What we know:
Layout: E1 3-4, E2 6-8, E3 11-13, E4 17-23, E5 26-36, H1 39-56, H2 61-77, H3 79-90, H4 94-117, E6 121-124, E7 131-138, E8 141-145, H5 153-164, E9 168-172, H6 178-188, E10 198-200, H7 205-213, E11 219-223, H8 226-238, E12 246-250, E13 255-259, H9 265-277, E14 287-293, H10 294-310, H11 329-344, E15 348-351, E16 368-371, E17 388-394, H12 397-404, E18 409-410, E19 412-416, H13 420-429, E20 434-437, E21 453-454, E22 457-458, H14 467-471, E23 472-479
Parallel strand pairs: 1-5, 8-9, 8-11, 9-10, 11-12, 13-14, 13-19, 14-17, 16-17, 19-20
Antiparallel strand pairs: 2-3, 4-5, 6-7, 7-23, 12-22, 15-16, 18-21
The structure holds 2-aminohexanedioic acid.
Amino acid sequence: MPLHQHYINGEWLTSSKTRDNINPSDPSEVIGEYCEADAQDAALAVQAAQVAFPIWSRSTPQQRFDALDFIGTEILARKQELGTLLAREEGKILPEAIGEVARAGYIFKYFAGEALRMAGQLLASVRPHIEVLTSREAVGVVALITPWNFPIAIPAWKCAPALACGNSVVLKPSEFTPGCAWALAEIISRAGLPKGAFNLLMGDGVAGRALVEHSGVNAISFTGSTNTGRTIAQHCAQGIGQTHKKYQLEMGGKNPLIILDDSDLNVALDCAVNGAFFSTGQRCTASSRTIVTEKIYSQFMQAFVASTAALKVGAAIESSSQIGPVVNQAQLEKNLRYIGIGQEESGQLLVGGQRIATLGAGYFFSPAIIENHNPQARLNQEEVFGPVSTLIKVKDFEEAISVANATPYGLSAGICTTSLKYATQFRREMQAGMVMVNAPTAGVDYHVPFGGTKASSIGPREQGSMAMEFYTTVKTHYIA
Ligand code: UN1
């Protein structure tokens, strides 16, 4: 089996350490062997990016358009093949995996267009005979640290705007899903970029830390856990005045879905099941708290439990599967630990919450609902990052909003209602970066801003035209 190498300075480079990429549906299946970087490899990648920066940042919008459009076109053409790889390495069921690959392709196409639309402003000065212009310039070397749960879409939504704005990139994907990032790098290697403008550095926290601590990195965009995000922010803040870095962090969520008495029950059920359990609940946008008003509580609970129990868990590439395995043994153990915590704090386990050993050695876990009406319970406060939703009964809309807002997080929030008044009030009062009416909290468009408030996100939004905010700095020009 060929060894998958880092892509640094336009070359494929090996490192002494490697890791097997394992299929979570069948851990005996090794998808491939991938290099793991140390601090020296990271330094090589940063150096290559530094050398490439003056060249790539002066490229024309046409060159950037052509490169990104090429990448997007090839990803779309290979979505079946890359989707299968994604399903095998991450465990997402095949239709979701193919959908994610398509999303990555469209993201590159979208930012190809954005490269042509980079614009500034012309303003009148408050002083006579002076013109004021603003322009946007690339930030420099950007390190992009991405998680395992969207192994191609998140690398795409960081790499595409970074390159569109003229930055040079070091991409460090999760050590659990290097396959999609490696395939993406292989496509990028043929897109006509100058060598060093894009680098792939595979590995775990050792490689990530080396990038965060490297003085040659000008900006870090990170999606992952709140703890790692906090460490990155602290490091960037410590560098102020010396090796200051710009940072953008997408972290956890504890996203609420509110279901009101007046909702269409079929819509509500679809939103709850999709939001909590699709992609095995491994989305920072998953609805992990389902908050239901008391009049329809028992009716909804019964339907929600029945639909959840009926979900077919199985191997990611099996066409009958609706829910794939969780990503690895550690995540499986974390889910089981949280089920235990939920029960210890007097939550009622209504369905699921077990390892499904009958499906073999894969990390299969039955989607779980835990009833606990105390908004301060740990299961209602802490992110599990698995197919686990809590169910909370509330009196009315007002209580629903106050419970929904009662966590440190603020990524996404949903409501199911047929009332325009409540839907509007919900959109105004929710402390969240994304609010959904009669739609699941997860599963977002690729061309509009993505991000949260409170402990979920720091820094400018990702995706859509607003993504340019992070990947550029503004220069103000005075011309007399
Ligand atoms: C989605 O809900 O479609 O890590 C995207 C995550 C998010 C992406 C969610 N950054 O789950």
